[in-house]
Each structure stands twice: as C-alpha cells, then as structure tokens.
Amino acid sequence: MDNKKELRNWLDDFGLPHPLVIAGPCSAETEDQVLNIAHQLKDSDATVFRAGIWKPRTRPGMFEGVGAIGLKWLQKAKEETGMLTATEVANPTHVQLAIEHDVDILWIGARSTVSPFIVQEIADSLQGTDKVVLVKNPVNPDLPLWLGAVERLHKADIKKLGVIHRGFSTYEKTKYRNIPEWQLPIELQNRFPDLPLICDPSHITGKRDMVFDVCQTALDLNYDGLMVETHFDPDNAWSDAAQQVTPATLIQIMQDLRIRKENDEAEEYNLKLGNLRAQIDVIDNQIIDTLGKRMRIADEIGGLKKKKNVAVLQSKRWNEILGKMILEGDERGLSEEFVLRIFKAIHQESINHQEKIINA
C-alpha cells in the first residue's frame, strides 16, 4: 500500500480523540434500547456509536439481527446525540443500505474477512467511497489474509481504512473467547505503522470482567482505539450477553486506563520503551501458558509410566531433547549455556510433576 500517511488522516478529519472509543450494543434490539444506550454514551469518551444490524451466527436459529429497520434507529441516535455511527456489513446490499442511512463507519467482520470473494464484492460496492472502512482480523490467525482484505479495499480507492483486532478462534479452551495472538497485530503495526489499529476487547475476552486488562494491553502496545460492546442491561442482551459492559462501567474503564501521549523527545522515548515492554509482557504470558501446557502433558506421561511401572527418568530421551534444543537455540541467537539452564529447569519441573503422579 502506498501513501500510508493518508490512511491515518480520517482520524484527524473527524477530529476524533486518541484513543478512539467505539461503543454500543452487540446487537440493535429495539429502538428504545438503541436510543437509551446512545444517550448514556453521548457524554462519555465514546465518540462513535456501534450496533450490529445483521449478525452472522455460527448456527441457524440464533438471533441474526433486526435487519434494515435497525439502521433507522442508528440514524435517529446520530441525530439526537451527535455521535458518529458504525455497523458491520457482509455483502453489497448491506453496504448500500448502510450508506443510504448515513452510517459513518462500516466494518467487515471476521467471518467475512476469511473469504477474498466476499471482501472483493464489498470492495467493489464501496469503490471510491469516503466512508471509513475497518477490517476485523480473520477468524484464523492468518496475517497475509488480513492484509489481503485491506489491500483489496485500498485498490478500490477507499482512502479511510483501518483494522480491528478481535482475537482468533482456537480449538483449545483458554481464558479468552478468542485468543489475542498479540504478535500478529504487532507485526501488522510494525509493517504498516500508519494504518489505524483498533482493539475489540469484548470479542477477545468473551467476559466483561477481563475487558479492562485487554484494553490496557492494547493501549500499551500503541493501539489507536478501542471497540467495546456496551449495553444498559448486559445480562439480558439478545446476543453476547457475557461480554458487554454497562455505559457506567465503560466510563469508569476509560477513567482508569493509563493513556500515554507523545509530547516531546523524552515522552517519545518512554512511549517506545513502554510499547516494547508491553510486547515482552505479552510474550512472557505466552511462555507461562506454554509451560503450563507442557506440564499438563508431563502429568499424563506420569500417569502412563505409573500404569506400566516405568522409571521417571529416561536418559536417552532427555539427551535427545537437550541436543535438539541447543541446535534450535543457536539458530535463534541463544547461547548453549542459556538453553541448558532453561531446559534443565523445565526437565526438573517435569520430573517433579511425574514423581508426584507416580507416588500419589
């Protein structure tokens, strides 16, 4: 993509603050619900009101949105509060209807981003538009696929582009609804630093009590904005009830977040240092998570050894692992001494786990 500086200009064009805050319900349910939430948010840090009109669901029979009637509610919320509006589009018909109802920001959802055909259809229908278009990451952790969607829109002469990080699906059960895989948006940000990057903590966490922590991590990583699902009665929301916060909670979250601003050389140094440290924090958490998974496998091995009355220490296997890891470490610039210390500690912890199982 050429002229990357142009991509960030829409933030300034709208006079939007940093960080940009997009908030509103997962789904528009009724006119009263939409207007109620919008009025509670109008004096908050949120300057963009979001609501899902069409909801792509995993299985048939689930609530799939109110449809086009909800666009009239968004229009009315905009007139009454002065907030910009945003919604998801998944096909050219959605695009046409959203534009007709003066929606300011359109986003392409994770399920649509996985299909170049769908993205191309949307790009063609948006050819040359002055609307802001945001692209959520695809469901699977595929950076080229995510960037490919952005490139299709850019080639359709859409100037006001940005991306939304909403996490990635996994077969593993974790504390997240969609694992962040922070290294992917970090890589995207490194390659395209002028492409606005927005975090969707609601879909990453799936739980409202984790939203603040993910918001803070995103800001520490120098994200440009947040998209937080907000409902006046989250527990009774028609979709994604567990991950929505109340407007009052959102206001408190924004007050509690540490927002770093770039003012001078010293502040720029602190900003960059904070960003790099945040990246280290992300990787450290991944290391701990991976070690936890490794020890759970060690527990299973301990159970098998107990059943077959096999000794815990298998020297041949251990030496094979150590030799392989020393070579792998060398390729990554890690000294043999460091690799030995790390893997001896891991091996000892694994032995402790297995002995505990066998002696139980």
From TrEMBL:
UniProt keyword annotation of Transmembrane present: no
Residues covered by the Chorismate mutase domain: 267-358
Annotated GO biological process: chorismate metabolic process
Coiled coil feature spans: 259-286
Protein name: chorismate mutase
Matches recorded under Pfam families: CM_2, DAHP_synth_1
Organism superkingdom: Bacteria
Gene source species: Leptobacterium flavescens
Enzyme Commission no: 5.4.99.5
Top EC group: isomerase
One annotated GO molecular function: chorismate mutase activity
InterPro entries noted in UniProt: Aldolase_TIM, Chorismate_II_sf, Class-I_DAHP_synthase, CM_dom_sf, CM_II_prokaryot, DAHP1/KDSA
Keyword terms of this UniProt record: Coiled coil, Transferase
Signal sequence region: none
